[in-house]
Structures are given as C-alpha cells and as structure tokens.
Amino acid sequence: MSSAATPETGDGTDSLTLVEAVQDALYTEMSSDENVVVIGEDVGENGGVFRATEALYEEFGGNRVVDTPLAESGIVGTAIGLALAGMRPVAELQFMGFSYPAFDQIVSHASRLRSRSHGQYSAPIVIRAPYGGGIRAPEHHSESKEAFFVHEPGLKVVSPSTPYDAKGLLIASIRDPDPVVFLEPKLLYRAFRGDVPTGGYEVPLADAAIRREGDDITVYTWGAMTRPTLIAADNVADEHGVEVEVVDLRTLSPLDVETIVDSFRKTGRAAVVHEAPKTAGLGAEIATTIQERAVCYQEAPIKRITGFDTPMPLHALEDYYLPQAVRIQDGILETVEF
Amino acid sequence: MSTQNEADPHVNSESTQRDEPIRILDDDGNLLSHAEVPALSDEKLLAMYEDLVLARRFDQRAISLQRQGRIATYAPMTGQEGSQVATSYALEEQDWLFPTYREHAAKYVHGMSLASLLKPLCGLRDGYAIPDDVNVLPEYIPIATQVPQAMGMAWGHHLQNRADTAVLCHFGDGATSEGDFHEGLNFAGVFDVPAVFVCNNNQWAISVPRDQQTASDTIAQKAAAYGIEGVRVDGLDPLAVYEVTRCALSKAKNPTDGERRPTLVESVQYRYGAHTTADDPSVYREEDEAEAWRRKDPVDRLRNFLYAEGLLDEDLEDEIDDRAESQISEAISTVEAAAADPSSIFEHVYEELPDRLREQRDELNALREKYGEEAFSEVLE
Ligand SMILES: Cc1ncc(C[n+]2csc(CCOP(=O)(O)OP(=O)(O)O)c2C)c(N)n1
Tell me, what DSSP letter sits at residue A309? Predict the structure, then answer.
C-alpha cells in the first residue's frame, strides 16, 4: 500500500472540501489536456446540483462543459463514443440511484469494449456519481450500490473519503486507460476540509490506505463509513483498550488484496463496514478473499456491519439504517471477544 | 380528438399540427370569443377554483416548512397547479393516475389526502400508502420510468375489456429525453392503449431549458413519430386543460372508427420558482422570464372568470381561503404528530419477512435497547 503519493507539480496546498477537491481535479485535468470534457445533466451554467463542476463552464466554455438532455444512457453512450474519438470524457450522473438507465451502456459496453475488440479499442471514460445516505434526501437519492459495478469485469470502481484522495484519485481515474466509476460519498462533500496540493498529482488506483494502525482487529471500509469507523475505533481503544486497524479501500475494484491480507495476517480478526445492503455486498467479497488467502491466521468469524437488506428508508429512519458508531463498536467488540 | 362534444375547442383535424396552444381563457381570464365554457356545473367550477387555491397555499406552506427544517427537499408546483388540478378534474374515479414527484395537486384531486402528501417529506414512508379506493400510484422520482408502466397498465385494462378505465401519466419536458419515454409512447401506439400522456412542459429540466432538451419545435409533435395524437394546450388555462384532457380520456375509452386511443398532451406551463428547494434558479435563469408567465397565472385567471360569471364574490373568496388554510394546518399537525417506527424499515420489502430480514431487525432492536435511541439520532459525520 502507498499512503500519500507525492504531488507532481504545484507549489502549495489549499484547504478544500471533498467536493471542491473534485472540482479542482477536473479543473487541473481540463487545463492540462484539452481532450478532457465534462458532460452531464446541469453540469454547465448551473455548476452541477452539488456544485462539483462550478466555475468550469465559465473557464472552459459550453463546448467542454456540456449540459446534455436528460438521458443517462445517452450520456454514457456518448462518453464511450467521445472516447473512441480520442477524447477523455468525464460524465456526471446526478445520483448513483439514477445510473440505472445507463447500466446497459456501462456493463454491456464501457466495461468490455477492450475485451470485445481484442484490445483494439477501449473506453477511457470516467463516470462520476454522488452516492450514499445521510443527507435527508428523497427516495433513490441515498443509494449505495457499488457492488453492481464491482461485479462487472473491466470496470474500475473508486470511492474517496478525503479531499486529498478525491483529487488524486479523480486525476488518476481521468488518466487511466480503462473506464472508471467514480463514486463520491455525498455525505462527505462538505463535512470537513483537508489539505490538497495545488497542481496535478495521482493517488494510484488499487492502493488501499491504512487510516489507523492497530493489532487487535482490522476494519475494512470506504467512503462515508470511514468516519463512524474511525470514531468507533477511538471509542473501543479508550473504553476497552482494543486497538483497531482501519483500512480505507479507496479503490473497490480492483481491490488492494495485498494490503487487505497483510493487515489481516497481523490482526487475525476482521470486520467490514459498508452502508450498502449486506447480502452480496462488497463485505462478502472481502471476507472470502481473506479466507482464501489467510484462513490459518483467522481467530474469529469475519463480521459484516452494513446497511440492511431493505430499501434505504426515508430520512426519518435513515440513521437507523446506516451503520452508526455504536453498531460498529458492538461488532468490533463481538469479534475481538469471540 | 373526440368531436362528439359541442364545446370541444379543437374540433378540426389540423389541431395536431397547430403550434398555438389551445386556450379557452385569455391571459386575464376572459372567455375567448371562439371558445365555449366546458360542461362543468357551477359547483364543479367553484370546487376547481377552491382546489387551485388549496394547491397554491399548500405549496407556499411546504416551501416555508422546508426552510424551517421541518420537511426535507420539496418540489414546488406554483404556476403548474392549474394544469395539475384540471387534468385530475377530467379523470373519472376509476381512471388511474401516474404522478411524478411534483404532482401534489393532481394526486390530491384524485383522492390522496394532504397528510399523505406531506408524510414522505417528513421522512415517513407510510404516506406512500394508497387507500384501496384511490387509483393513484406512489410518486415516481426516477425520470420517465412511469411512462412504459402507465402504457402497460392501460394495455392490461384493454386486454381485460375494461373499456371504462383510462390511464393518465404525467411527466416533465426533461423526461421526453429519456429512453423510457420513447419506449412507452412507441408501445402505446403499437398496442393502441387507452392512455393519455401529459407532458408538463414547464420549460426547464432543472437548469436545462426546453430548447436544449430537444430540437423538436414542440413536444406535442413527437406524437407523430409514434402514430398517436399530439395536442398542445395552454397549461395555465385550467378550463382549456380540463377540456383537452377530458376529450383525450374520452377518446381513449371510446374512439370513433379509425381513431387512435392514446394522446400526448403538451401542457405548456412554467415553473415560477425553483426546481426543488435545493435549487437556485437565479444561477441559470432571468427573473423577468418568470414574471412574463406570472401574468397568465392560472389561479388569477380562473378567479377572474368566476367573478365575471357571477359565481364568486369577496365573501366567498375569503371563505375559500380560510378553508384552505385550516385544511393545510390540520394536515401539518397530523403529520408532525406521527413518528416513524424503526422496525418498519423491514416491512413491505417482501410480503413475508424473510429470515435474514428478521435477524437484521432483531439485531437493530437489540442495539436500540442496549444503547438507547440517542445513539442513532446523530447525523453521521
Ligand atoms: C433517471 C433520473 N435522472 C436524473 C434525475 C435527477 N432529476 C430530478 S428532476 C430532474 C429534472 C426533471 O425535469 P423535467 O422532466 O422537465 O420535470 P420537472 O422537474 O421540470 O417537472 C432531474 C435531472 C432523476 N430524478 N431521475
């Protein structure tokens, strides 16, 4: 695993929110490569419904920051075509819950253009989508269905949890030769600021980050769940002397198997925290990967602390659905005391 | 359109090619010289006005509740209630309504309570529960997804020989860009189903104006591609919307020889305010554009018309305003007194609770017991 990659250029840092870091990444790449274009619903003059593309329209104009008609299949299909013409499109889908009309283009085409054409063509596109709960949004606006995309060979799937990573991972995604689904935890869009280097730098795809070191148990997580996981880790350290290692996967496909397994070899116990439903979620994949490679180190069942196998409830009950610090603590202690 | 009705304001067959929206009232609410008042009783006309007033006030209250943090993101309808109320007035009780997230007034008129409209905005899913005798689907949030479903239901009724039942499906101008819109209308034409598709063309899909949504001159003209009828109507003229919708529904149920059942109605209107309470239209739109449309306001127009007909006076107007106000206040108190039960997260996912959901529910309840509700009430950050 590599924690922080070193900036390539730029001479300072800015204190940015995660959504500002996304915008900064787009700005940086659009400035250095005129083939990079941003397309999507309301990304232009309006600057995106979360303001992720704010000011790009004024800077780069309506030919590079393009409001499309309201049609996700059209957006992703168009992005694939643009990529075939040698461009580097970044397509915004307004919410992950509205990515499904584009699903056919993503899983039938973007992901397999390379294999289908025997390496002749590829679809180096980035599909950005805000995802996850916790912001009192209406139905379909809070979903966390990363497993749909992780399940699809040929796609890369990324989910940052810090402003630094958001910028570095997005730049790496834009420069990546394969299609990337870039999932932005909208709960974290404005939750805090972090230091972000000016200029372009990459956080490599497929490198997990160790956010906290510990010997007793490893907790794997990503996106918005890194925050309650870190809170829970601090609590169990204070109250029970349990030292948790927290691994933020950052890239969900391909997984950083080496970091996942190395950490488990050290601690012998594991939990996975995600807000997506439990059944066939990424937690199952991580648990099995660990067992395939390090079952002899295993001292307790691997615990999944996840959203429920139900639709995300409307906001009055959202906090019961999302793994809260108490639920995470409970799961950690259950695993440690097994 | 059906030509059976004398009051039919668009009897000639060129109506499908007409670009000028059909109108009965002028901008000020005067009866246009060529037009006839739809066959609605005085009571119905007054009731329609009362529902318009209620809709407008509901909208204002909902926006202010959202600003006070008492409800979540809300999609306003001011400027569009004339069309919503009038299209639902054209429905018969047995007809079905497929609404979007903005059709609060259309749903209310077809039988949903004000409280049930407010509940989802307070995070309470039981507001989506539809009484057995009300033919309304829960709101559709993913754009255009209702169009093929509405077509399918209409087809189902047709296959079952339920000739008295039609389906009315709402969507916005933005929705006409989605594949589902085209697939739904294409099927509707092929299977010749008893459905009326109402495009609430409010000129904007969030920040994208109608002319960047489609290069077609009108939305109604898209109907030609599917072999069905297209009609444009002034969506701020409640009487015209009523009449056009009524004719389309009646044709859907009872076409004359060679007539096609489905109709695409383009109801030309305007969203005065923000797309939702999370949106700021000043970023992408000039305020005077909204002002121009406000001069054709549907509530004012119907009010003026009713005054001119001698059906409305100031006392009655005040009475109607007060009634609307108290109905809304009552609905708000009912909804704010209701609480959500965390166990309900697991309900209605399947008809029978599977074991894995039972386990998850029991786990959650055990945690609530152990840590108390406060542990769950903090926003995750
Ligand atoms: C499939 C899908 N994509 C994106 C969205 C986000 N979204 C919500 S409303 C909206 C604009 C809709 O415009 P229009 O169809 O004209 O209806 P209006 O809201 O103006 O009534 C968008 C893009 C969505 N709800 N569903």
Answer: S
C-beta separation of B190 from B224 below 8 A: no
- Category of A241 on φ-ψ map: left (φ > 0), alpha (ψ -120 to 50) or beta: left
Assign B8 a pLDDT band (cuts: 50, 70, 90). very low
Q: What are phi and psi of B208, to 5 degrees?
A: -100, 120
pLDDT band at B377 (very low <50, low <70, confident <90, very high): confident
> Which residues of chain A does B120 touch, with a Cβ-Cβ cutoff of 8 Å?
138-139, 314
Give B378's pLDDT tier (boundaries 50, 70, 90).
low
* pLDDT (average), residues B5-30: 68
Whether residue B213 and residue A70 make contact (CB cut-off 8 A), yes or no, is yes
Give the strand order in the sheet containing A217-221. A209-212, A244-248, A217-221, A270-277, A303-307
Rounded Cα gap, residues B223 and B105, in angstroms: 26
Distance between CA atoms of A287 and A260, rounded to whole angstroms? Answer: 10
Q: How far apart are CA B130 and CA A278, in angstroms?
A: 30
How many CB contacts within 8 angstroms connect chain A with chain B?
Answer: 143
Band of pLDDT at residue B3, cut at 50, 70 and 90: very low
Question: Residue B215's beta-bridge partner residues?
Answer: none
Share of chain B residues as helix, strand and coil, in percent rounded to the nearest 5:
50, 10, 40
Q: Above 80 in pLDDT, residue B311?
A: yes
As a residue count, chain B comes to 381
- What was the pLDDT predicted at A10? 64
Cα(B85)–Cα(B87) distance, rounded to whole angstroms?
6
Interior CA angle at B354 toward B349 and B356, to 5°? 105
Token look-up 């790449």 returns A29
Q: What sign does the dihedral B188-B192-B196-B198 (CA atoms) show?
A: positive
pLDDT-based confidence at residue B16 (cuts at 50, 70, 90): very low
CB contact under 8 A, B142 and A74: no
- The dihedral built from the CA positions of residue A195, A201, A205 and A208, taken in this order, carries a sign that is negative
What's the pLDDT tens digit per position in A88-105?
999 999 999 999 999 999
Helix (H, G, I), strand (E, B) or coil at A203: coil
- C-alpha torsion sign, points A158, A163, A168, A174: positive
Is B131 touching A (CB cutoff 8 A)? no
Quote the minimal CA–CA distance from B283 to chain A in Å. Answer: 6
- What whole-number distance in Å separates Cα of residue B212 and Cα of residue B360? 47
Q: Count CA atoms within 13 Å of residue A186 on its CB side.
A: 24
ipTM of model: 0.94
